[in-house]
Structure formats: C-alpha cells, structure tokens
Amino acid sequence: MQTNGLHHVTVVTHDIQRFYNFYNKVLGLKLLKETENIENTAMKNLYFGDNKGNAGTLLSVIEVANPLFVKYTTDEIYAYSLRVPTDYSLYVFKLRFDEMNIKYDTVIKLNGKHALPFYDCDGRCVYLISDEHNKGIPLGEPDDDSNVDAIHQILGLGPVLINASNRLLTSSILTQVLDLKHTSSYQLAAFDNDVQVFTSGDGGSGGEIHVVQGAASEKKRAANIEQVGVSVTEEVLFDYKKRLESVNIPHSEISDRKFYKTIFFKDPCGIVFELSTKPDFNL
C-alpha cells in the first residue's frame, strides 16, 4: 500500500464570496465546482484547483455561519502552501500583492525551497512556494482563463505544516499508518524546534507534510484549516480502512463526497487526515 502525495486541503470561511474573490481574482485559482456543504446543505462548499481538477491541486472551502478569527495554537494544521513554477513567480506575485494591498512577509525557505508568506482574506498565513528546484510530483495544468499568466500560475498544493503537541504521535501516524517516509528536517523562524519533513508518493513539495513540536496549549483549537487529504487509489482505500480498524483508530466509513471517495480520521493530537481517491469534477 502507498499514498500518492497530497490530495486536498479543506479550510473554512464565514464570507464565501470574499473568499472566492480573493482566491480567484487575486491568486488566479480556477473555481472547479460550487456545491452545498454535505454536513449542512444551507452552507456552500467551493472547490478550487488546476485546469483539470487534478488531485494534489485541490483547495476545498466550506462556508460556516460564525465569523472566523484566525489564531494559532498547537494541535492544528498551522498552514498550507501553494506551488508556483519558479522563483521569479514569487516576485510576480509580490508585485501583484503590492498593487492589491495584500499583506505579505519576507521570502523564506521551506525545506530548501523559496517561499513567500502572505495573508489571505481571512487573515490566515499561506505560503507560495517555488517549484524551480523541486523534484517529484509534477505541477498541475494551467488554466487559460486565469488572470495570472500561465508561466506563473499556482498549479498545486505544496507542503502542509502541522503544529503538534506530541510530534512523536503524529509522526508515527504518518509513517506507520499512512506509509509516509521521514526524509529531512529544517529550521523555521516561527518555531523554536526543528521541522520534520515526511514524504508521500513520488515526493517533492507536492507530497510533503511538515511537523513541528509545539508547546502544549490550553487554547481552543482554531480549526480554520479543517483537514489535509492524501491521495490513494480506490482499491487501496479499502486496504487503509482495514489497517485503521486493525490498529483501533476510529474513522469514518468510506464516504462519497460527490467528486471523490474518502475516509477521514483524527490522530491522537486531533489533526484530521483524509484518504481520498481520484477526483472527477465533470459531474
């Protein structure tokens, strides 16, 4: 069994129209589908991705009733990143952010790759990460209708960062349950401890989950980033279900999310992971 890289990230927002305007008009992401939230049909669920809606390029956003206040605690998905083709693409977006008064920070490195931290319409920190020196899972397909030039478009998910109060437990889930490999570590100024890198599938930025050891916190988990999904084949999805049962990890049944099938579960720190099949948005 193996996972095949990142599949999607799910976030929440109180203002779905503002989110659409930012991610489509500012970042240039393609809106693949607008549907209702399966858990609450009064609320919307938008899917963004590359031109074909390939796994590894998907951002799912769920509308919630209450205003969102982004705050950072432990035992949460701290941030996600979005892949752009080159280092120069970061500069292009930096100029774009200047024109549109979007807040951003100095370019840093995530596991050796240049990355531009910025703050989206809900105030969450997101990283644009350059694919210039990346190997492994390829970028997705550009969208001819995007307002960002094809050579600079966001074409996939990059590393997802997890802040865990017990890194050992989360790491063991990644390696022993989801079959990711521990491949490297690096330093990030936002944290006192080093960041451990775990890789899925063919690896590279499109297959990485980064885990940092955070201090235990009494603060309530913000949950502005709901979950991270990794890609599996439909056959392997059933095998992973059996594995979760064999190690007594509570999990959902195999769920049909309209566009793909999925199982989700929580690790001991409360991080929600999904195992998801090849998407089809031509429905």
UniProtKB/TrEMBL annotation:
Q: Which SUPFAM superfamilies match?
A: Glyoxalase/Bleomycin resistance protein/Dihydroxybiphenyl dioxygenase (SSF54593)
Kindly give the Pfam families that the UniProt entry links to this protein: Glyoxalase (PF00903)
Question: Which top-level group of life is the source organism from?
Answer: Bacteria
Residues annotated as domain Glyoxalase/fosfomycin resistance/dioxygenase: 5-52
* PANTHER family with a match to the protein in the record: RING-CLEAVING DIOXYGENASE MHQA-RELATED, RING-CLEAVING DIOXYGENASE MHQE-RELATED
Which protein, by its recorded name, is this? VOC family protein
- Which lineage? Bacteria, Bacillati, Bacillota, Bacilli, Bacillales
